[in-house]
Amino acid sequence: MSKTVYRYQFEDEVPLDQAEATLIMAIIAAEALHGQAEVRLSMRYLFGDEKHACVIDGDNEVTRQLVLIFTQFLIHEFGEDAFQVTLISKDDRAERPVPGNGKPTSGGRGNGRCNGCDAGACAACGKGVEA
Question: Where are the alpha helices (DSSP H) in 1-131?
Answer without folding.
Answer: 16-34, 36-42, 61-78
